[in-house]
Amino acid sequence: MEAELTSQPDTWRQAATLAETAPLPQRGQRVVVLGCGTSWFMAQSYAVMREQAGHGLTDAFSASEAPLERDYDLAILLSRSGTTTEVMAAAKNLQGRVPLLGIVGDPDTPLPTLVDDVVVLDFADEASVVQTRFATTALTLLRAGLGMDVTPSIADAEAALAAPIDARLVTADQITFLGSGWAVGLAHEAALKNREASQSWTESYPAMEYRHGPISVAAPGRATWVLGAAPDGLADDVAGTGATYVEHADVDPLAELVTAQRVALERARARDLDPDHPRALSRSVILG
């Protein structure tokens, strides 16, 4: 996990170059992005990002719950393994009705045989069960495909990898991750990463929803971590609970996710856990 998460600036650069020729969505297309787990959260972030950039309607669904009868110009199937049962089922359901684009880590898997176009991110594939660089590299590819300059994000990721880890985040008995806009999906992913790698109690919400109930778990020894800019007044409200408050509004949220990955790794180490082989998890969910 450590080797893979620290390689992200390099894989993001490769993704930005690949985006120049990859068969990514065109402006104006109605797009749906499907994935499971981490890939679903990356889909959520991309959907918001694409719509905010004015490129057209973009939906993101868990592959198991997608309303596949809707009318789309393109479906993106995001799967590191290329074998996830629900993603494969969605691809078979959509074949012949909607053009399909697969984004995978391993080309020698079933998913590429079911789609019309494929983008292979084999340089970002992983040995660890816990996903880090494949997910963020896929999002960087899609982000660059919108014409966005990802250079500042890469620079922020390099800084995030060099910065010291706040010890309070390693020892906190609970962490809530928050985000706004496209960072909501990243907040969900940060929470998942810490649950997977270190069996931590984590929660995640849109930042404006936090004060509608979830803030009740904030307390001394716990942390509230905002990816991106926080709503007005949130820092003061969290301070009143005694919880540790974390916000780096000037840091790209995707780079902030890298810091959350590092915290997940350190929390696993502190608990003598193996983040590469988490309890009850495997690289791909293949259902019988």
Describe the structure.
The protein has 288 residues and is of the alpha/beta class. It has 2 domains: 2-148, Rossmann fold (3-Layer(aba) Sandwich), CATH 3.40.50.10490; 152-270, Glucose-6-phosphate isomerase like protein, domain 1 (Rossmann fold), CATH 3.40.50. The chain has 11 helices and 9 strands. It has a 5-stranded parallel β-sheet with strand order 2-1-3-4-5, with helices on both faces. Helix 7 packs parallel to helix 11 (253-270). It is globular. The mean pLDDT is 96.
Short summary:
By secondary structure, this protein is α/β, with parallel strands linked by helices. The chain contains eleven helices and nine strands. Strand 1 (31-35), helix 3 (38-52) and strand 2 form a beta-alpha-beta unit.
